[in-house]
Write a structure and sequence with these properties.
By secondary structure, the protein is mainly alpha-helical. The protein has 18 helices and no strands. α12 packs parallel to α15 (332-349), α12 (265-295) packs antiparallel against α16 and α15 (332-349) packs antiparallel against α16 (358-385).
């Protein structure tokens, strides 16, 4: 892949980013349309959550396996398979007329999305081997990952209002088709880079089952209760399967995940930072959307527009400034500074009142979070991917995506529980309903700020200070 001429490489990057954007959009675009889906297909409040959970379950469960399949059988080939699965499943979602059909199609979407997400970053790392170009390319890819969720809220509101909920899925068909055809043209075919090693089936089965049980336990933890037998049993089962997975990987000759990978300090630290950061960012994105809608009374389109300043600042950093910072200061400084700015932004949200004003109580926090995310995401991705051999690039990509996914799911579940408990406590103390609701959100924002600050300290203390390139 590295033999491609520069213009073709950058075109390939744009196409890979478009494919990943389609996946990122689908994690949030559906949230806006849930009320319409519930009415049209007669979902109950309990069953409706499976429109989201079915996707998260397979997406989180297959990230590691998807990345390793790319290493073994060729990243271009596996990426195309993932795009085909996701696009076909999107058609199934868009045409769904029953609850079961929609939930099943969403599960298949998650599988395709996991494969695409796990392989896309590895393809970019292998396309761009020169440090300055790689930093710029990863910055662009990072912006797509970070900004896609906000775009999904805006696009979901527009499509649902202008047409109906079916179109939030059908819009993927022309995008998926174009990405598939353009990748056939732009990316040269190649065999897997893992030396013809056989797939570790026992490791694949145990880690996939472990991740799926963990995701299921986490996303249902608030409803079932964190101390319930169901939640404890699922999390315990996930832990036992993961321990078995580690035991298998220590013995098999061709492991799915070579454990020596985590002896690389920057890779291990970047993934730990990713877990903390994702926990903080999910709190910001989802809970601030609730604050804007339920406390300030914004509509779905207004919510999407409110995130625009953060996305614009993020774009400015991701599309050039972040790469220059990495080349000038290395990885550690920009990550620590970016996470500190994100913590400050979340702290400002933790002070937002019931009668908040956009210019005083929303915009400053949004700008700080956009600045922090734009500054830190590129070097976090580079730290997670920069120390691995090309034959393990897909695996490292899958590990990084899994860290973000699990951190985000766990962080959101924990902080949503914290917000609900604080709201209930304030309501029991006689606080007005809106004040109690906002008090819960403020507690969640404050805890998210602690997560982001912890990520900054971890990066500063542990990440190896790589010498900046000239």
């Amino acid at each position: 892949m590295t033999s491609l001429d520069p213009r073709r490489r950058w075109l390939a990057l744009m196409v890979l980013c478009l494919g990943d954007l389609m996946i990122v959009l689908d994690t949030t675009i559906v949230n806006v349309a849930l009320p319409s889906i519930r009415t049209d297909l007669a979902f109950t409040e309990t069953s409706l959550v499976w429109v989201v959970n079915a996707y998260m379950l397979t997406f989180g469960g297959f990230l590691l396996l998807g990345g390793r399949l790319g290493d073994l059988f060729g990243q271009r080939r596996v990426f195309l398979v993932g795009i085909a699965i996701f696009t076909a499943a999107s058609l199934g979602c868009g045409l769904a007329a029953t609850q079961g059909t929609l939930i099943a199609a969403r599960a298949v979407q998650g599988l395709g999305g996991a494969v695409v997400s796990a392989v896309a970053m590895a393809l970019i790392v292998n396309l761009f081997t020169e440090p300055a170009e790689r930093a710029k390319a990863m910055g662009i890819f990072g912006f797509v990952m970070a900004g896609g969720g906000s775009v999904g809220v805006l696009l979901g509101g527009v499509l649902t209002a202008a047409f109906d909920w079916h179109w939030i899925f059908l819009v993927n068909l022309p995008i998926g088709g174009a990405v598939f055809v353009l990748c056939l043209w732009l990316l040269p075919a190649g065999a897997g880079s893992a030396g013809g090693a056989r797939l570790d089936l026992a490791g694949a089965a145990t880690v996939t089952a472990s991740l799926m049980l963990a995701v299921y336990g986490i996303v249902n933890g608030n409803d079932a209760g964190w101390a319930s037998g169901q939640t404890l049993g699922l999390i315990g089962g996930a832990g036992a399967l993961f321990a078995l997975f580690l035991a298998i990987e220590a013995k098999v000759p061709a492991p799915l995940m070579p454990l020596g990978l985590f002896r690389r300090r920057n890779l291990a630290t970047a993934n730990a930072v990713g877990v903390l950061w994702a926990a903080a960012m999910f709190a910001w994105f989802f809970i601030s959307a609730l604050y804007l809608q339920l406390v300030l009374g914004y509509g779905p389109l207004d919510v999407g527009l409110s995130f625009l300043p953060a996305n614009l600042v993020m774009a400015a950093f991701s599309l050039g400034l972040s790469a220059k910072l990495v080349m000038r200061f290395g990885l550690r400084g920009p990550i620590a500074c970016g996470m500190a700015l994100a913590a400050a932004g979340l702290f400002l949200f933790a002070l937002a009142p019931v009668g908040g004003n956009f210019w005083l109580h929303v915009l400053p926090g949004m700008l700080l979070l956009g600045l922090g995310c734009g500054m830190a995401l590129n070097p976090v991705l580079l730290a997670a991917m920069g120390d691995v051999d090309p034959k393990d690039a897909g695996l490292a990509s899958g590990v990084a995506n899994t860290a973000f996914m699990m951190g985000g799911a766990l962080g959101l579940a924990v902080l949503a529980s914290l917000a609900a408990a604080r709201t209930a406590s304030l309501a029991a103390g006689g606080a007005p309903a809106l004040d109690a609701l906002n008090g819960g959100y403020r507690a969640a924002f404050g805890s998210g700020a602690v997560f982001a600050a912890a990520a900054a300290l971890l990066a500063l203390a542990v990440l190896r200070p790589r010498a900046p390139a000239t």
